[in-house]
């Protein structure tokens, strides 16, 4: 039998600390390796921490609200070769865990639970409610699937996915109601986005270049292969992986766009890690990163894009999936926008936005002469940091992306 200090695990290169949100177990609870025991928040994402050992949690070394450094002790787990009671039934373990959470919740969330409700809500559920601006009255109306009708994390996420009209930053269309002004408190994610965007504009002088590209070949190819792709891989092939592939090829041609600034140094990155902006159901923005994007085939990129986008919307990304980006794209065409000037994700030096694809009359050059035809056109916007990226590089890069799309190989198999 041994007393082992479990430490806060690494969560990505740029994350050095995190805030403890809630314990999901109580002192004295038995845990198995990989059981979720603690929920934390970083400057990028909320996530759950799994136990590294089989044993009994004997002491918490951090409490909700504490800021814990990566690598610092968070709890003590007593381990032994065979944890007594391992033969407990799943139902007993679940019951014990929920009772443990209830004990923690009664201490940590006592101020929040001062309502007319006798219904119990776990710390994790209360944390989601607080972050999403869900009132106690609204929480009371959510049907729970847990023991004794308790609301679980999955119940909360399902409720949010169903299109709940949020009080804050709901970007879905809704009827305007005249009357008194409404004061909306920013949630933690919106505060972080606000701080980062202001900081980026303050640090980097933004310049933008635009190119209109002919997407006709890409559109026709995608229409041709989309059914086969779905049958083969069980998912959709969107335009996003095609756009990412074009950007990756352009970065290889112009590697000085794949840099970061740490004044007075410029760091030329050795990996091509593409961030892709994803709008979440609550109206916020999150940017998962495809690491080593140049090492994927187009089909693999499509699968990766679908996976990351879905998990981003479901708040199931891992912290290290949000770090180490070297270049970012935003597919604003999904919102019907023709162009935009996105703000750079620091410490990167550029970001590209792809507008909606529209049918337009265009001049088509042929050996027999010029003709007027209907083509699928898209505007590409390129924002870049003028401290280190001059107009020539910024303009040539976006033109290269356009050329890559216009010269797309329509004979490739998926």
Automatic annotation (TrEMBL):
Top-level taxon in the UniProt lineage: Bacteria
GO cellular component terms attached to this protein's record: cytoplasm
EC number(s) on file: 2.3.1.-
Pfam families assigned to the protein according to its UniProt record, in alphabetical order: 2-oxoacid_dh (PF00198), Biotin_lipoyl (PF00364), E3_binding (PF02817)
Record GO terms (molecular function): acetyltransferase activity; lipoic acid binding
Cofactor(s) the record lists: (R)-lipoate
Keyword DNA-binding: no
Keyword Nucleus: no
Record's keyword terms, sorted: Acyltransferase, Lipoyl, Transferase
Enzyme class: transferase
InterPro entries the UniProt entry points to: 2-oxoacid_DH_actylTfrase (IPR001078), 2-oxoacid_DH_E2_comp (IPR050743), Biotin_lipoyl (IPR000089), CAT-like_dom_sf (IPR023213), E3-bd_dom_sf (IPR036625), PSBD (IPR004167), Single_hybrid_motif (IPR011053)
Lipoyl-binding domain residues: 3-78
Domain Peripheral subunit-binding (PSBD): 120-160
Family named by the database record: Belongs to the 2-oxoacid dehydrogenase family.
Subunit field text: Forms a 24-polypeptide structural core with octahedral symmetry.
Protein name (record): Dihydrolipoamide acetyltransferase component of pyruvate dehydrogenase complex
